[in-house]
Amino acid sequence: MLSAYPELVEFLPCESPKAWVNWAIENQTLLLNDHAHCEKKAASTAMSLMYRYVDRDNLLHKMSRLAREELLHFEQVHKIMRKRGIAYEHLSASRYADGLRKHIRTHEPARLVDTLIIGAFVEARSCERFAALAPHLDEELSKFYLSLLKSEARHFEDYLALAQEYAGEPIHDRVAFFRELEHKLIIEPDAEFRIHSGPPVNV
Asked: Would you call 198 exposed, middle or buried from its count of C-beta atoms within 10 A (0-12, 13-18, 19+)?
């Protein structure tokens, strides 16, 4: 399913562990709840970038579109949840995003570049996980997750292209730095299931 996005596959350090996929299948109520939170957070991230970097014309264009799409995805997940009688509840954040963001440099444009690279990893991993889950879910959820692949892949491309545009220098080393961090966050066990968690701690 990801064969149409070879750059995304190459960008990520690994596939999702099979134990995580099985965990997701067993926790579909939590999966949908956290998915809704992830879409809302993604829209918020895009809006925050628009407020912080008002002089970056291409960023404003790309993030405006991205925020609208993420909010649409939130609405779609929430509609599925309501249809299935699943309450939208507060969830603690996974260690994934914080594990990446705590390494963001504090001076500009490095801060922006790191934030954009992390955005690329978040979107790429989301795309990979939706593709991994789709074959194992009911028809409605499978169709929905497959429908998200194209936009998630484009969001990955947008984030990475913006990072390259605003860095003023090659970003290969910085991408490699965050790829190593992302790999650890994906393969190391987690006590709580989340869209971006590692495999269950007891596996």
From this structure: buried
Give the closest residue to 66 by CA, choosing from 25, 9, 27, 120: 120
Could you read off the pLDDT of 72-105 as tens digits, one per residue? 999 999 999 999 999 999 999 889 999 999 999 9
Q: Are 149 and 160 in contact (CB under 8 A)?
A: no
Task: Determine the CATH number of domain 17-187.
Answer: 1.20.1260.10
pLDDT tens per residue, range 30-42: 999 999 999 999 9
What are the structural domain ranges in the chain?
17-187
**Contact between 197 and 190 (Cβ < 8 Å):** yes
Structure tokens at 78: 């929430």
Report if pTM > 0.90: yes
Q: Which residues pair with 200 in a beta bridge?
A: 190
Angstrom CA distances, 85 to 53, 76, 80, stand at: 40, 14, 9
Alpha-carbon distance 150 to 152, whole Å?
6
How many helices (H) does the chain have, and how many strands (E)?
8, 0
Evaluate the CA torsion angle 11, 13, 16, 20 in order and state its sign.
Answer: negative
